[in-house]
Design goal:
Oligomer: single chain
Largest sheet: none
Order of helices and strands: HH
Helix content: over 70%
Structural class: mainly alpha
Strand content: under 5%
Length: 71
């Protein structure tokens, strides 16, 4: 009977792989949440003021009248 002993054999470290996958998923989720919050903030706080500004601005009204289709 021959027994072979491998001294430098490294066992796979599953905990490190699982931790790296977890960190990757957390970063991916954080990026998605960041963009969702940015989009929501724009649509709630900035876009209405831009829309009001275009309706109130006299130069925009003149251009709308100038370039309106003639019926």
């Amino acid at each position: 009977m021959i027994v072979v002993v491998r001294l430098n054999e490294k066992k796979p470290n599953w905990s490190v792989n699982i931790l790296m996958m977890f960190i990757g998923k957390v970063v991916e989720s954080a990026v998605l949440v960041l963009f969702a919050i940015m989009f929501l903030g724009y649509s709630i706080f900035i876009y209405p003021f831009e829309k009001i500004n275009t309706k109130v601005n006299p130069t925009v009204k003149q251009k709308q009248i100038k370039y309106a289709p003639q019926l």
